[in-house]
Every structure is written in structure tokens, then in C-alpha cells.
Specification:
Rossmann-like_a/b/a_fold; 41% helix; elongated; UspA; 10 strands; alpha/beta; 2 domains; Rossmann fold
Length: 280
């Protein structure tokens, strides 16, 4: 399968691990609700000696081994997707390449949404080892959902069962708002616009057009003086999904400046969507 066939589908990065099964279930459910195909994507990794330490024959044999192993994982993922919802069209994409490269290419090829699992390791370990979910969410050109098994929510929480979108007035906020409204409308849920601020002033009104485009979505606005990272992580315990924008900071810049989207991906207790400004 070529990446051109990924366009318009719900793409899921699948590696056969339990976290991948959580992401697969989320992707299939969303695809069923939105009437889109789902594309199960597996990146087999780079052959040993890719940097030039192995001869050509050894590299070829290793690449073939990776392809065979990847085919088994991909077949299992596709079978699982069909078990979850037989009405959803399932496509597949297998490449022997570094996962972040493959997933970024899938996003650039026009995927409607990219869904990933997460191992949930902490900030420093994630920075040193490299997280596929974080790295891809920073560079992908389509919205990225990092799915994890949600915790038991508090039904009395302000955020319970809502789509929550974090805003700060930047252009990334409008991208996040657009995706959050679409999700809330599709799921038949209320939307909470959450502005957690320190000393950067108040958030104002919704940009024009959202209320008219999504008259079916009940909207509330909540402002709180606190670190947005902590507030959004807390909201993720109880919300259906938390959406934020991303400026696409690199690893070093994000570590120094404290990217809200990166922090949320690492520490959230439920699904997170990261949206990017620019054409959809």
C-alpha cells in the first residue's frame, strides 16, 4: 500500500503491544462514528547496521526479517480491528523504517487523524530515549490523538464526560478549537473551553463561526489562575478527551520552554488530541 491510499483515513500506529491495542480500539471506534476507513500502520524499524556497520547482504537479510516480523504484527492488528467493528473498512501500511519517519509521512500524505498509544514514561526518560507519540505529535501535519486507557472519572467533576479544549489566545488555539468542536459534535458531547492562565491576561470570546457551524454543541468557558499543564492533566482524569494546540517545538526547545502539549502527552490520564495550525 502506498501513502496516497492513507488520505482521508483514520491512521493508527500499531506495534502489537497492549498500549497499541488501546489506541487501535479508540481509532476503530472513531472511524465507525465518522464513517471513515481505518489504516493500520506498522513501522518495522531500521535494519541492524543501517549506519554502515554491516555488509549489503546482511542488511538485506535483516530487512527481510523485519518485514516478516512486521507482517505478523500488522496482520494481527488488522484482524483485531475487524473484530472490533466489522462495518469499518480496514486498510494496511507496512514499512521497514524508523517509526517517527513513517508516521510523519502518513500524516503528510493526508490522514484525517493519526492515533498512537503511549508507554506513559516520565519527562526525563522520554527526552533521553525518545517517545514516538511525542515526537510524532510535534511534527505531524494532521491532528494526533494519543490514546490511553482512561481512569475512572469523578461524575461530579466540572470536566466529566466533556471534550475539553485548552486555549491561550495563540493561533494554535483556533486549530485546537476546530478539532474539539468537530469531536464534540461527532460524539454528541458538551465542549468546555478551558483557559488556565498565570499572568498573561484573560482569554476573550470564541472566534467567529464556531457557534454557527456547530449549533448542536453546548459550550461552556472556564478560566482559572494556575499552571495550564497541571490544570489540563487534572481535566484529563475526568474528560472524554482533552485537546490542545502545538507549535511543533523541537525536543530541546520543548524541554527548555516547557511545552504544554508535550507535558500533557506525558502525564495525562486519558486521551489527548494535539492539533496544528494551518490547512487541514
Amino acid at each position: 500500500m502506498t501513502t496516497t491510499e492513507v488520505a482521508g483515513t483514520v491512521a493508527i500506529g500499531y506495534d502489537g503491544r497492549p498500549q497499541g491495542d488501546v489506541a487501535l480500539a479508540w481509532a476503530v471506534r472513531y472511524a465507525g462514528r465518522s464513517g471513515r476507513p481505518v489504516t493500520v500502520v506498522h513501522a518495522g524499524g531500521l535494519p541492524v547496521g543501517y549506519a554502515g556497520t554491516a555488509d549489503g547482504a546482511a542488511l538485506t537479510a535483516n530487512r527481510q526479517d523485519l518485514h516478516v516480523a512486521g507482517r505478523r504484527v500488522l496482520d494481527a492488528g488488522c484482524a483485531r480491528a475487524r473484530e472490533l467493528d466489522a462495518t469499518v473498512e480496514v486498510r494496511e501500511h507496512l514499512v521497514v523504517e524508523e517509526p517517527r519517519v513513517v508516521l510523519a509521512d502518513v500524516a503528510a500524505a493526508g490522514a484525517h487523524l493519526l492515533v498512537l498509544g503511549t508507554r506513559g514514561h516520565g519527562r526525563l526518560v522520554s527526552y533521553l530515549l525518545g517517545s514516538v507519540s511525542e515526537g510524532t505529535s510535534a511534527v505531524a501535519t494532521c491532528p494526533v490523538v494519543v490514546a490511553r486507557e482512561p481512569e475512572v472519572p469523578d461524575r461530579h467533576s466540572l470536566y466529566f464526560d466533556k471534550v475539553v479544549v485548552g486555549v491561550d489566545g495563540a493561533d494554535t488555539s483556533e486549530a485546537a478549537l476546530s478539532e474539539a468542536f468537530e469531536m464534540a459534535s461527532l460524539e454528541g458531547r458538551s465542549l468546555m473551553v478551558l483557559h488556565a492562565r498565570d499572568d498573561r491576561g484573560r482569554w476573550h470570546d470564541l472566534p467567529p463561526g464556531f457557534a454557527e457551524k456547530y449549533p448542536d454543541v453546548p459550550v461552556s468557558v472556564h478560566e482559572i489562575e494556575a499552571d495550564p499543564r497541571w490544570v489540563l492533566v487534572d481535566a484529563s482524569r475526568h474528560a472524554h478527551l482533552v485537546a490542545v494546540g502545538s507549535r511543533g517545538l523541537g525536543d530541546t526547545e520543548a524541554l527548555v520552554r516547557g511545552s504544554v502539549s508535550r507535558y500533557l502527552i506525558e502525564h495525562a490520564h486519558g486521551p489527548v488530541m494535539v492539533a496544528h495550525p494551518g490547512p487541514r
